[in-house]
Design goal:
The structure is a single chain. By secondary structure, the chain is of the alpha+beta class. The chain is about 15% helix and about 25% strand. It contains seven helices and 25 strands. The protein has helices at about 10-15, 160-170, 215-225, 230-240, 270-285, 340-350, 395-405, and strands spanning about 40-45, 55-60, 65-70, 80-85, 95-100, 105-115, 120-125, 125-130, 140-145, 175, 190-195, 200, 240-245, 300-305, 310, 355-360, 370, 375-380, 410-415, 420-425, 440-445, 465-470, 490-495, 500-505, 510-520. The protein has a seven-stranded mixed sheet, covered by helices on one side. Strands 13-10-9-23-24-25 form a six-stranded mixed sheet, with no helix packed on it. Strand 17 (about 370) and strand 18 form a beta hairpin. Helix 2 (about 160-170) runs parallel beside helix 4 (about 230-240), helix 3 packs across helix 5 and helix 6 runs parallel beside helix 7. It is globular.
C-alpha cells in the first residue's frame, strides 16, 4: 500500500461545508449539463469498520448506477474499481456496500460517481470519503460516543449541530452513536421561545419534521433531516459511525405495551406497524452491517484490533412490555435483552481476546428511567426503582454480571446515553443489594443535539456510585436548548504501549469536564 498522504484532520478541513468532497480534479467520465445530471443528496457515510472491511453509504436523487473506487491515497492512484450498484425508489435511492479485502491500520479513501439509469451518459460530480481500518497490532485508539440527535423540537439552527463539529476536531477512529439517533416522535416548529426571552429558530425544516413519523417515507425523512446539517455531513465524510438504536427511532418508550389509542398525533395505532417501518428506515439510512441470520439485527460485535472489542446491545427489540417490572423470576416478560441476545453476548465476551471489552448499551443500568415520568411509575430502562434485590429486568442483568465474574472476563466498560446529561458511575458490589459481580464503570453521555434533562435517581440494586455528573440545575430547569451549552460527548483513548484506557467527558465547546484513566487487569 502507498504511504498515507493526508491526515484525518487535514481531510476534514478539505471537506466542503456540506461534506461533499467533489472537487478532486481527476479525469472523470463525460458530464452533461448540470440540471440533467444526477446528484448525491445527503452526503456519504462509513461505518462498522474492522481490520479488513467497512461499510459505506450514499443516496442519489433518482434511479442511478453508482460506481465505486477505493484507494489508500487521496489522489486515487492505482485505485480499485468495484462493480457498480443501482439505486431505486424501493430503498429511497440509498445504496450501501461492504468494502472488503482492505489492509489493516490503513487510511482508506472511497469515491462514488452516479450515472442516471435513464441516461447513462449523464454523470454526477464525485463524492469522496475516508476512514481508517482497525489495527492488527497494538496502537493508540481514540473514539467518541454520544446519543440523542434532534430531539424535543431542537433542530438545525443557524449554528447547526455544533457538537458533531467538536467531535470532528478530535479526529476519532470512529464515532459510536448510542441511540435516539433521530426523534421520529419529535415534531418541530419554526421557532421556539427560550426562557431568557430569546427565540430558537429552526433555520432548516422539512414538512416531515412538523409531525410525528408514521409512514415509511416519514421515517426515512427523519434521517434525511439530520443529514441536512453541515456538521453531521462533515463528520460522516471523515469518520465512521457505529450505530445502535433506542426508542425515539420509533416513538417514545415503545414496547409491546405501548397504547396509542388516545394519542391524537397518530392515525396509525399499531406499535408493531410503526416499529417495522422505523426499523426498515434505520437499516436503509445507516451503515449498520447486514446480518443474514437475522436480517434487521442491531446487536453485534465490532473487533477493533487486539486492544478493543465493541459489543453493541439492542435493549429495545426483544424486551418484554413496559410495566412495574417487579417479577421475581426471569420470563420473556421480564427480559430487556432477550434470551438469544444474552447467549450471544456471553459467548462473544468469553471468546474475546481484546484487552478492553466496551459494552455499548442504549440505556443505563442503575439510573431510574420511568415509563411514565409524570406519575413516576413503570420501568422504561433496567432499574425498577425499589433499591432491593434484583427483580424484573434486573434479573437478566444480574445473571449477565454474575457470568462475567465467574467466567473471569476482565476489563468490561459500559458506555451509554439516553438520559440527556453526562455522568460517570462506578458499580460497587459492596454497596449493592445484588453483590455477585466484579466492580465496573459505566459512563453516560449526550445529548449531542437535543434538550438537556436530568439528573435521574439511582437504584441501588447494583450499587452505583456517582463519581461525576453534569446536568441542569434546578434554577436552569429542564429541556434546555442546545444553545445553553449543555450538550455532551465522551472520548475514549486507549494507549497502545500501556494499554491504559482513559475516558474524558466533554461538552460541545470542547471543555473537558471529567477524566479518569483505568489500568487493565492482566491475565494470570
Amino acid at each position: 500500500m502507498n504511504k498515507i498522504s493526508m491526515t484525518r484532520r487535514a481531510f476534514v478541513t478539505s471537506a466542503s461545508a456540506v461534506g461533499l468532497v467533489g472537487a478532486s480534479g481527476l479525469a472523470l467520465p463525460y458530464y452533461s449539463r448540470a440540471n440533467q445530471r444526477p446528484a448525491f443528496t445527503h452526503g456519504i457515510q462509513s461505518g462498522d469498520v474492522d481490520a479488513t472491511s467497512g461499510m459505506v453509504w450514499t443516496r442519489t436523487d433518482r434511479p442511478s448506477r453508482v460506481m465505486f473506487e477505493v484507494s489508500p491515497t487521496e489522489s486515487f492512484t492505482n485505485a480499485v474499481r468495484l462493480a457498480p450498484l443501482d439505486t431505486s425508489p424501493a430503498s429511497d435511492y440509498t445504496v450501501k456496500r461492504l468494502l472488503t479485502d482492505l489492509a489493516s491500520d490503513q487510511d482508506i479513501f472511497y469515491r462514488m460517481v452516479a450515472a442516471d439509469l435513464a441516461d447513462i451518459n449523464a454523470v454526477s460530480e464525485p463524492v469522496v470519503g475516508r476512514f481508517r481500518t482497525a489495527p492488527a497490532s497494538k496502537r493508540d485508539i481514540r473514539f467518541a460516543w454520544s446519543g440523542d440527535t434532534a430531539g424535543q423540537g431542537w433542530g438545525i439552527d443557524e449554528t447547526g449541530m455544533k457538537t458533531y463539529a467538536t467531535i470532528a476536531k478530535h479526529a476519532p477512529d470512529f464515532f459510536l452513536h448510542s441511540g435516539d439517533t433521530i426523534y421520529a416522535d419529535g415534531a418541530m416548529k419554526d421557532e421556539v421561545d427560550l426562557p431568557n426571552g430569546g427565540k430558537w429558530k429552526n433555520k432548516v425544516l422539512i414538512d416531515e419534521k412538523r409531525k410525528v413519523a408514521e409512514t415509511l417515507d416519514e421515517y426515512r425523512a427523519q434521517w434525511k433531516y439530520n443529514m441536512m446539517d453541515r456538521h453531521v455531513l462533515a463528520l460522516s465524510a471523515i469518520c465512521p459511525t457505529f450505530y445502535q438504536w433506542d426508542d425515539h427511532e420509533v416513538l417514545n418508550n415503545w414496547s409491546d405495551s405501548k397504547d396509542l389509542s388516545a394519542d391524537d398525533r397518530y392515525t396509525e395505532k399499531s406499535i408493531h406497524v410503526l416499529a417495522a417501518r422505523a426499523a426498515r428506515a434505520f437499516h436503509e439510512m445507516t451503515t449498520i452491517r447486514y446480518e443474514p441470520s437475522e436480517p434487521g439485527r442491531v446487536y453485534r460485535k465490532i473487533a477493533y484490533g487486539p486492544l478493543l472489542d465493541v459489543f453493541f446491545l439492542d435493549m429495545r427489540s426483544y424486551r418484554g412490555p413496559n410495566g412495574p417490572d417487579m417479577q421475581e423470576t426471569m420470563t420473556p416478560q421480564s427480559r430487556i435483552l432477550g434470551e438469544q441476545q444474552i447467549k450471544w453476548l456471553k459467548r462473544e465476551l468469553a471468546n474475546s481476546n481484546a484487552t478492553w471489552k466496551i459494552i455499548a448499551a442504549d440505556m443505563p443500568l442503575g439510573l431510574v428511567v420511568w415509563n411514565d415520568g409524570t406519575k413516576k411509575v413503570g420501568a422504561e430502562a433496567v432499574s425498577n426503582g425499589d433499591n432491593g434485590p434484583a427483580k424484573g429486568r434486573e434479573l437478566e442483568i444480574a445473571d449477565l454480571l454474575r457470568y462475567i465474574k465467574n467466567a473471569g472476563i476482565s476489563n468490561t466498560v459500559w458506555l451509554t446515553a439516553d438520559v440527556h446529561y453526562t455522568a460517570a458511575h462506578y458499580y460497587n458490589p459492596d454497596k449493592a443489594q445484588f453483590q455477585d459481580f466484579n466492580p465496573f464503570w459505566e459512563f453516560v453521555s449526550g445529548p449531542i443535539h437535543s434538550g438537556t434533562f436530568g439528573p435521574n435517581g439511582f437504584d441501588m440494586t447494583f450499587g452505583p456510585e456517582l463519581k461525576f455528573i453534569k446536568a441542569p440545575t434546578a434554577e436552569q430547569g429542564q429541556n434546555l436548548a442546545p444553545s445553553a451549552g449543555l450538550q455532551f460527548f465522551g472520548l475514549v483513548e486507549i494507549e497502545g504501549a500501556t494499554e491504559q484506557l482513559t475516558v474524558r467527558l466533554m461538552d460541545r465547546d470542547d471543555s473537558e469536564l471529567y477524566k479518569v484513566t483505568l489500568d487493565p487487569v492482566r491475565s494470570a
